[in-house]
Amino acid sequence: MSVLVYTESENGALRKNAFEVASYGYAVAQQMGSSVTAISINASDADTLGTYGVAKVLNASGAGLESFNAKNYADVIAQAVQKEGASVIVVSSSTDAKYLAPILAAKLQAGYAPNVVAAPSSTAPFTVKRTAFSNKGFANTEITTDNKVVGVSGNAFGAIENPTTAQVEAFSPDMSSADTATKSVEVDKVSGKVTIADADTVVSGGRGLKGPENWGMVEELAEVLGAATACSKPVSDLGWRPHSEHVGQTGKPVASNLYIAIGISGAIQHLAGVSASKVKVVINTDPEAPFFKAADYGVVGDAFEVVPKLIEKLKEFKAQNG
Amino acid sequence: MKILVCISNVPDTTSKINFTADNSAFDTTGVQFVINPNDEFGLTRAMWFKEKQGATVHVANVGPATTEPAIRKALAIGADEAFRVDAEPTDGFFVAQQLAEVVKNGGYDLVIAGRESIDYNGGMVPGMLATLLDMNFVNNCIGLEVDGTSATASREIDGGKETLSTSLPLVIGGQKGLVEESDLRIPNMRGIMMARKKKLEVLAPAAATNATKDTSFEKPAPKGAVKMVDADNMAELVNLLHNEAKVI
Ligand SMILES: Cc1cc2nc3c(=O)[nH]c(=O)nc-3n(C[C@H](O)[C@H](O)[C@H](O)COP(=O)(O)OP(=O)(O)OC[C@H]3O[C@@H](n4cnc5c(N)ncnc54)[C@H](O)[C@@H]3O)c2cc1C
Ligand SMILES: Nc1ncnc2c1ncn2[C@@H]1O[C@H](COP(=O)(O)O)[C@@H](O)[C@H]1O
Which residue intervals define the domain Electron transfer flavoprotein alpha/beta-subunit N-terminal in the entry (chain A) (predicted)? Predict the structure, then answer.
């Protein structure tokens, strides 16, 4: 009855969310008096999961697993579930995890609770707290099936160190009935840029920035902070920024440590998607902008004056603090 | 090509969310319901397949009679026929099983659902449905072309997009991008009149099980007051972010 965590990797290296799901899995295992096994695919640094309490890693690779395929990856995880006799499976809230989790749940006849923000309040019955209504509320959800799939929200539970030594085992799943119908043809991704999903800080611009030519300072601010860039919906609809940067209820969700909103009014649909961020800074000329009510720090002022000054002060700060 | 568009009926995006006095349920008092925004993009894409490729478009919803305005709206936008499975959509697994029956009986080639409903944010019905039916599945779908039985779909990934080749029968979890915002259809008078005559069949639910149960709800803790920083004092903002908020 161990806990199985699916730890994602990219280009051979575990992603930040892998350590979060490992930490979450460890907490569940402690509650249930069992241990955590991780299943990773193509990770070359799987042993580092030991830092977060993972006792054993099944590291899968092979034909059909070279690149992400939701059905095949779900199948590998299901085989690992069987091998380990696991009943609780923990996945992240990445785009890929949200793609494969329902497939996995249906395969295992398991209930799936996504967007979970805390360790189970009880494991029998198995009850977790998760966001619902686009961050306007929380649901306490009981998973009533024998097998349970838990999707942990990014940056909610955190990566918590519980050092142990992880035994890494090569795992060769049976891929004889692998899915070949759905194939990746092209991946279009800016390399070397931190993504909204993985970023600790997100710098976001709205229609108040007047036009795409003014994004230089947003990018510079993001660079100083090691942040990802994002935008409000009209900004992507107007073609000022790519759709992949659109955040909010109908765009990407944001759950960063720091979210800086520049020239964004704070419409309810925008807030719904970004309010899971821990600290929000709002820069807006209009003191009545609704976003100030949802902010931690506010600056009333013209972005074209405020942002360059903020960049300058941050550079000074970085120079002093390394 | 026969397309089924799955629509969920959700609170309007501007709704205030409240729960009943004992926190056991969502309080729908005064709440306006709409077609889930992700499904509106899917429905508009389905209309394109109807107009350009002669597809037949049906819509389905699992819900009580109160969801019929949303279904009628989908018919007014141009769907040919509709089904309502007469049951409370108690959880994603249950809904997926109900929709699987509709898909099996209707022999659909393409099922267009949304990446998630904006009410319970399950994001699970399309993936479960595809798995129950052993159909191909693309989630977070932001582009779809069909040529005979082959399909090319693009999906959003963290940090960009991926193009996939796949084939019918196919289920997608769609979202904005599937069509442009400006292409979204609004029903016109003629559509509304025609929708009244279109078939909206009420189906008895199939035997199905639940896998989860929402036992109680909570509102987020009230937000502390915002701390204002003078626009001429960005050094202070940096100081607060470092020493107080500890995020830089
Ligand atoms: C179904 C639905 C779903 C939606 N989903 C989303 C979503 O997911 N994400 C989203 O973002 N929106 C969404 N919206 C749109 C949302 O309602 C708002 O229209 C949108 O968020 C507004 O974007 P904005 O704040 O950039 O622009 P505006 O509302 O135009 O605000 C611009 C702000 O910039 C300020 N400003 C102007 N000049 C300056 C300056 N020089 N310096 C500083 N500040 C300045 C102004 O005071 C103003 O507050 C949705 C709407 C609907 C109906
Ligand atoms: N009650 C329902 N009736 C019909 N389709 C639904 C229903 N609930 C969810 N769906 C479909 O599944 C998608 C994802 O919903 P969910 O899994 O609830 O987040 C929605 O966008 C709809 O396309």
Answer: 3-184
Say how many domains are in chain B. 1
Q: Is B153 contained in some domain?
A: yes
CB proximity under 8 Å: B 43-102 to A: 91-93, 96
What's the mean pLDDT when you consider all of chain A?
Answer: 96
Evaluate: CB of B62 within 6 angstroms of ligand 2: yes
- The ipTM (two decimal places) reads 0.97
Q: List the domain range (segments joined by +) for residue B159.
A: 2-216
Whether the CB of B175 sits within 6 Å of ligand 2: no
Q: Which of B37, B173, B145, B60 is nearest to B108 (CA)?
A: B60
- Distance (Å) from CA A208 to ligand 1 centroid: 8
Q: Which atom of ligand 1 is nearest to the CA of A248?
A: 8
**Domain A2-171, CATH 3.40.50.2300 — does that match?**
no
Is A106's CB within 8 Å of B123's CB? no
Whether the pLDDT of residue A64 is over 90: the answer is: no
Domain range A201-321, CATH architecture? 3-Layer(aba) Sandwich (3.40)
CA distance B244 to A297: 11
Instruction: Judge whether A269 is annotated as a binding position.
Output: yes
- Residue A1: per-residue pLDDT: 67
Which pLDDT value is given to residue B87? 98
